[in-house]
Amino acid sequence: MQFSGLVVQILNGFAEASSLFMVAAGMSIIFGVTRIVNFAHGSFFMLGAYIASTLITTMGGAVWFWPSLLLSGIAVALIGLLVEVTLLRRIYHAAELTQLLATYAIMLIVQDVVLYLWGPVPLMGPRAPGLTGAIDILGRKFPTYSLFLIVVGPLALAALWAVVTRTRWGRLVRAATQDRDMVAALGINQAWLFTSVFVLGTFVAGLGGALQLPREPASLDMDIQAIASAFVVVVVGGLGSLPGAFLAAIIVAQTKAVCVWLGVIDIAGVQISMSKLTIVVEFIVMAIVLVLRPYGLLGRAPNLTRQNRLVTSSTVLRPLSSRGLLIAALVVVALVVVPQLRGQFPYMPVLVLEIMIVVIFAASLQLLMGAGGMHSFGHAAYFGLGAYAAAMAAKYMGLPVEAALFGGIGLAVLGGVIIGWFSVRLTSTYFAMLTLAFAQIVWAIFYQFEGLAGGENGITGVWPSGLFQSKTAFFYLVLGCLVIASLFLYRVLFSPFGYALRAARDSAIRSESIGMNVRRLQWLGFVLAGGVAGLAGALFVYSKGSVSPEILTASRSVDGLVMVVLGGEHAIAGAMLGASIFVWLRDTIGLNAEYWRAVLGLITLALLLLMPQGLAHLVFRKGAKS
């Protein structure tokens, strides 16, 4: 740990901060006005790198390098214009989660479009003309292009700040950020304003991706990496705050740089690899900031007078009618028959088994979302805690399946108690991002802990034993758990606690005014949902025979969100229907379509636009009226 190494790492941190700010600035501007958390923003960053690579290669010559970067930003801005006009305008007044999942679907489509146009091999970019060398700093070489990037970040901030504060358009943007409804009341053309903001945001993201090309190749995972970092920077800085995003980018990048410089340190005889923490340190920073400052470093609290939800017939949960109870009974009877069809349809029991486990997971998330109004981006944490607890109980303690299942539920409940205590103090996007941060921290713990948890390889050789050793017996165990979990969640929903939780969802201020402890209600709901998700995770590990950190990733949490929204967030059968359709589509498309992400994204978009209340409201609409 030499001083010269620290200086170089700090400079690297400033260069990385500029790259982070370029992708986060556009997202911050877009959210400030449109209130859309754009999951596809990383896709525009990726497109900027790929388009720049193509333009530089096609035009050739050093003289076209810098114009190609600018043109790639303009090209991405035109793509953003097309996306905003054709799609996003239709969902500006939709629920926040619907907007996010629509942009997630766009991200899936863009991934496969890029795969089709440029292929799976990363594209190496040329060195920047005039900036190909390195300078000597305290005996160490530092790239000249990285010095250039250090300057780009502050210049981009100054340019954006001038546009926002010194122009009439900027005044409209700031006004819309403060009070979008008042801007509309004054007769401002919101459609034009939203479009211009989105175009500017995508231009900055595309230009940022193009500027990244001399440092790293354009690859298919650039969008995921960029969006994860951008979310952290925007939330830590404060949603809609450009200076906050710049400050957060510096803090995150410098924290990573210091971790790399520290390397392996010894604390009380225990060696800790600080460099490995770089995969999760940004989420640790986000968790700490949100716990201490719930709205980010420079963010502002939302206008609470407009936080009451609109209660309509579509958001009111009703007990199952006699027709609904009959359908539920028929579904259970059909599931009982499935193992007997193994001879004629060998794959059917395998697919149905996975669907039942996923339904339990989705139903637990629906308790949070539908009844509690809490949109968790980290629900996979409790699924993973349940899976790892069951695997370790079976593998290292030799416990039977029944005891391992209770162990999985117990650890997931404990995780819900700890994470929920911090998370319920936040609302809306900040709540979602804090749950994501905690989930990523849990993932990093199991990913790096190579002792009992097995590290990256996970735990293998975990199969049902004893009474549930046969495939048929285990199938019926899962079915029994599904029935018990469904009855439990149904009872919770229509208990006094469930009604109180929904009241807190619709109006926290009114609920508190009549003596309800809203945070305690939400905390208990959080814990109950975590326990049910832990049961699903414990069953999952026995169905697959192994567990790895992959089940803790953010993508599994997002899958759960998609299932609930597709099925119907406020429908009793929403989780069951959405999870069943999602797993079946993913399985079918994955086997039969080369570009399955694009197909899944298109189907998701179609369902969100045509049936925003979910499939369950369409299927059971007549039953709900009876």
Give structural notes.
The structure is a single chain. By secondary structure, the protein is mostly helical. Helices cover 69% and strands 3% of the residues. The protein is built from 25 helices and six strands. It has a two-stranded antiparallel sheet. A two-stranded antiparallel sheet has the order 3-4. A two-stranded antiparallel sheet has the order 5-6. The protein starts with a helix and ends with a helix. Mean pLDDT is 87; it is low at 305-314 and 622-626.
* Range of strand content: under 5%
Structural class: mainly alpha
Helix content: 55-70%
Pick out the low-confidence regions.
305-314, 622-626
**Shape type:** globular
Q: Count the strands?
A: 6
What order do the strands of the largest sheet run in, or round the barrel if closed? 1-2
Radius of gyration: 25 Å
What is the terminal-to-terminal distance?
73 Å
Please report the number of helical segments.
25
On the 0 to 100 scale, the average pLDDT is: 87
Oligomer: single chain
Q: Tell me about the largest β-sheet.
A: 2 strands, antiparallel
Give me some keywords for this one.
about 625 residues; mainly alpha; two-stranded antiparallel sheet; about 70% helix; globular
Briefly say what this structure is:
This protein has helices spanning 3-34, 41-59, 65-86, 96-118, 144-166, 168-178, 180-185, 190-212, 222-237, 242-262, 281-292, 322-337, 348-371, 380-396, 401-423, 428-448, 471-493, 496-506, 508-513, 518-544, 554-567, 574-592, 596-610, 615-619, 621-625; strands at residues 134-137, 140-143, 264-267, 270-273, 459-460, 546-547. The protein is mainly alpha-helical and 626 residues long.
